From TrEMBL:
<dbReference type="InterPro" id="IPR003593">
    <property type="entry name" value="AAA+_ATPase"/>
</dbReference>
<keyword id="KW-0547">Nucleotide-binding</keyword>
<dbReference type="InterPro" id="IPR003439">
    <property type="entry name" value="ABC_transporter-like_ATP-bd"/>
</dbReference>
<dbReference type="Pfam" id="PF00005">
    <property type="entry name" value="ABC_tran"/>
</dbReference>
<dbReference type="GO" id="GO:0016887">
    <property type="term" value="F:ATP hydrolysis activity"/>
</dbReference>
<dbReference type="InterPro" id="IPR017871">
    <property type="entry name" value="ABC_transporter-like_CS"/>
</dbReference>
<protein>
    <submittedName>
        <fullName>ATP-binding cassette domain-containing protein</fullName>
    </submittedName>
</protein>
<keyword id="KW-0813">Transport</keyword>
<dbReference type="InterPro" id="IPR027417">
    <property type="entry name" value="P-loop_NTPase"/>
</dbReference>
<dbReference type="InterPro" id="IPR050166">
    <property type="entry name" value="ABC_transporter_ATP-bind"/>
</dbReference>
<feature type="domain" description="ABC transporter">
    <location>
        <begin position="3"/>
        <end position="227"/>
    </location>
</feature>
<dbReference type="GO" id="GO:0005524">
    <property type="term" value="F:ATP binding"/>
</dbReference>
<keyword id="KW-0067">ATP-binding</keyword>
Length: 246
């Protein structure tokens, strides 16, 4: 797939020949320097931007079924509606199509998954940044997506909250089996969470590495990061990113 977008000087190629397949239930982390087109790629996968050549297929179909692909943004502060309670933010994507009892049950279930069961009647501004990001993740999960796309989901959080949410995400993904594709600037986060790590490089951006992680699950913050395989994947990714900078 390739993507061209309009700039002030006319059309500009943003991504060139980015072709890959992601298996159902797989977790893929995308890393790469700023401006290489990672967010654009995620937008194409989410159906928000159209590829100028090539296509995105989900289970062999090019038309993304609404609700099957959901995106979580880094900017949780703006993603949540401040006048709505936590529960009503989470129910945003399921207000049509589900009866009230089923909807309330679904909201309660996903809030429990992200560890916010006691905060359903709070408003976003009454929560910490990490909690607000959990609300956004809960809202995405409420529609029971087959594909979860996340653009630097933990980028704005402190290291301890980030580690906690990484583990929340792994637990949820193991339970829901959602195919998960996320962007991060943190190589360690990419390895810790993923089955494969993609490196996007250049301008226009292309997919230069698809590194299998091959670390056992369930993963833990200490043991996984001390595993010899972890270090070799880290080395390979650092080399790929360094070569690109050189
Ligand atoms: N809507 C748009 N119209 C025109 N050009 C765009 C648009 N969105 C992004 N671009 C351009 O596409 C290129 C890639 O941007 P993108 O946000 O995808 O990169 P990125 O790898 O996610 O960067 P970062 O890591 O800094 O978030 C940039 O040159 C940007 O200016």
């Amino acid at each position: 797939m390739s993507v061209e977008l309009m700039s002030a000087d006319g059309p500009r190629q943003i991504l060139r020949d980015v072709n890959f397949t992601v298996g159902a239930g797989e977790i893929v982390g995308i890393v790469g320097r700023s401006g290489t087109g990672k967010t654009t790629l995620l937008r194409v996968l989410g159906g928000m931007v159209r590829a100028s050549s090539g296509l995105v297929e989900l289970h062999g179909r090019a038309d993304n079924l609404p609700g099957t692909v959901v995106t979580v943004f880094q900017d949780y502060g703006n993603a949540l509606l401040p006048w709505r309670s936590v529960a009503r933010n989470v129910s945003l994507g399921i207000e049509r199509g589900l009866g009230r009892a089923e909807r309330e049950q679904r909201v309660a279930d996903v809030l429990r998954l992200v560890g916010l069961e006691g905060r359903s009647s709070d408003h976003p501004w009454q929560l910490s940044g990490g909690m607000q990001q959990r609300v956004q993740i809960a809202r995405a999960l409420a529609v029971e997506p087959r594909v979860l796309l996340m653009d630097e989901p933990f980028g704005a959080l402190d290291a301890i909250t980030k580690a906690t949410l990484q583990d929340v995400l792994l637990r949820i993904q193991a339970q829901t089996g959602a195919t998960t594709i996320f962007i991060t600037h943190d190589i360690d986060e990419a390895i810790y969470l993923s089955d494969r790590v993609f490196v996007i490089a250049g301008s226009p951006g292309s997919l230069i590495v698809q590194e299998p992680v091959d670390l056992p699950r369930p993963r833990t913050q200490l043991e996984t990061r001390e595993h010899p395989r972890y270090l070799s994947v880290r080395h390979a990714l650092a080399e790929a990113l360094r070569e690109e900078t050189a």
